[in-house]
Each structure stands twice: as C-alpha cells, then as structure tokens.
Amino acid sequence: MAAPVVPGVPAAPAIAAGDWLDAVRFDERGLVTAIAQEVLTQRILMVAWMDRQALEETARTGQAVYWSRSRRRLWRKGEESGNVQKVREIRTDCDGDVVLLKVEQVGGVACHTGRHSCFFNLLQDGRWVVTDPVLADPATLYGEQR
Amino acid sequence: MAAPVVPGVPAAPAIAAGDWLDAVRFDERGLVTAIAQEVLTQRILMVAWMDRQALEETARTGQAVYWSRSRRRLWRKGEESGNVQKVREIRTDCDGDVVLLKVEQVGGVACHTGRHSCFFNLLQDGRWVVTDPVLADPATLYGEQR
C-alpha cells in the first residue's frame, strides 16, 4: 500500500537506504571477507576485505571497492593499474559474513604479481607449485607509467 | 645431491614434513580463511576457517577439515550429515593467507540450511533474494536420524 503523500515531505522509499547492508555481519573490526569470482572463467581471482562503505559503493557504482588493511583506506580496485572489476552479481552467505562478487576483470589481471588470479599456488606432492604465468609486469601496473 | 647415508639414521626426506604448511600465513588466532569451490559446477559452496592441524589433515586424508570457531574444535565436514567434501586440489593465494579447496561435495549439499551452496542470497534491486532451493531437511541432516 502506498504511503499517504504529505505535501513537501518526500514519501519513504519502499526500502530504506542501507537496509540490505544491515543484513551483512561485519566483524568487530567492521569488515567482511570479500571474494571476487570471474564470471567468464568462474575462477576465484582474489580475496580481500570490505567495510560497510566499500560494499555500499561497490553496489552503487558497479565497480569493486575493498578496504585495504595495510593502507587503512578504501581501495578502489584498479585505481592504479586500471584493472577495475565490473561487478555483475553480489551475494552473501547463510550467515552473512562473507560477500561474493561475480566480476568481469578488466585487463585480465587481478593479482598484484601480474597474474590472472591470486590463487596461483597449487599444492602438489608436498610442495607449492606456481601454475599461472605472469601476464603483466607489476612495475608497469603500478609504476611511474601511470 | 643425495645426503650421505648413515647406517641406522633415516635419511632426511627431500621436504621436511610440514614445510609446505610453513608457507601458509595463519593469523594471530592461528587461522586462515578457507574457501570450498565445487569442481563440477565451479560454484563456491562455503567459506570457513582452518587452523594448521585442519589444513594438514585435509591434505593428508583428502577430506575437508575445518576449524569450528563456535565449537572450538576440528570440524570434519560431513561428520554429522555424511556430506563430506572430497578434496581434489588445494591452492593458496599470493600472500598465503587464504586456502582454496576444489572439492566434490558428497550429497550435493554443503550448507547447513540444506542448500547446495551457502551463497544463496543474491542482491537484487536493493534486497537479498534467495536463489537456491532447500534440497535436504536440516533436521534430517543433523537430527536424531544419524
């Protein structure tokens, strides 16, 4: 049922802003784990953290924004490298403490090492084996060229 | 080069037991984030925690073992429900603080709600929409029947 309209007072939206965010269980640091999975390949590209603002901005803009614990600030993925992540889907799990993004990875490189995915270490016969090639020089991704 | 053999003293193995575990960066609580991704569908089934022992046992036995923070003990996935996860691949990421398991999900149900995946909440037009059906009654999975 539509709310009665009072002249000069905007009608309350059907969902108050931020309602969906209230279902997300940020931890005592105000963070949730965020996983980026590539739509095309279904590979997991990376895992990072989000605070409430990062998740809100991700949903609003359609580009992945994380919280950088080392830099203690919002980290708009691709802000230096140009390799932004276009978000096609946002999911959360049964207890709401993990966020899953389905993304298109611009540039094909999600990892700061210049690889497609951060999960390039495979356990094989008791050793970690690197399975992915370096596709872009990190110095070029993050260097003075930009 | 092979180490000289001293009679009665076993030769050191090429890789000391646990070496690969030393590359994993457990946090101040002794835990890493662990993601289970289904081999067949490539869907992310669940995210949980592992301590060093859980990861070692997972690699040794080929069945996923996690650390339950609520129960404060090892959690052999499927120990109650029978829905074990057969581990086909173990990966870690560029900074070694997340473990990715590629698994076969026995019984087709990973979530304690009786759904295939824990990531059944999809953000759509500012609301969380449940996308996955309940495939098994949680009371049957965890009840007196077992």
What would your notes on this structure say?
- The structure is a homodimer of 146-residue chains.
- With 146 residues, chain A is of the alpha+beta class.
- Chain A has one domain: Ubiquitin-like (UB roll) (Roll), CATH 3.10.20.810.
- Helices cover 13% and strands 32% of the residues of chain A.
- Chain A is built from 3 helices and 8 strands.
- Chain A has helices at 19-22, 52-61, 138-142; strands at residues 32-38, 44-50, 65-68, 73-76, 85-92, 98-105, 121-124, 127-130.
- In chain A, the strands form 3 sheets. In chain A, strands 2-1-6-5 form a 4-stranded mixed β-sheet, with helices on one face. Chain A has a two-stranded antiparallel sheet with strand order 3-4. In chain A, strands 7-8 form a two-stranded antiparallel ribbon.
- Chain A is globular.
- Mean pLDDT of chain A is 88; it is low at 1-6.
Give a quick set of tags describing it.
3 helices, alpha+beta, Ubiquitin-like (UB roll), 32% strand, two-stranded antiparallel sheet
- Helix percent band of chain A: 10-25%
Largest Cβ-defined interface: A-B, 36 and 36 residues
Any idea of the CATH topology of chain A?
Ubiquitin-like (UB roll)
The helix tally of chain A amounts to 3
Structural class of chain A: alpha+beta
Main beta-sheet strand count, sense and barrel state of chain A: 4 strands, mixed
CATH class of chain A: Alpha Beta
Number of E-state strands of chain A: 8
Order of helices and strands of chain A: HEEHEEEEEEH
**Regarding quaternary structure, how should these chains be classified?**
homodimer
CATH homology-level superfamily of chain A: Phosphoribosyl-AMP cyclohydrolase
Major β-sheet strand ordering of chain A:
2-1-6-5
Architecture of chain A, CATH level 2? Answer: Roll
Strand content of chain A: 25-35%
Dominant shape of chain A:
globular
Distance between the termini of chain A: 53 Å
Our count of domains of chain A comes out at 1
The averaged pLDDT of chain A comes out at: 88
Q: What radius of gyration of chain A results from the CA coordinates?
A: 19 Å
User: Poorly predicted ranges of chain A (pLDDT <50, ≥5 residues)?
Assistant: 1-6
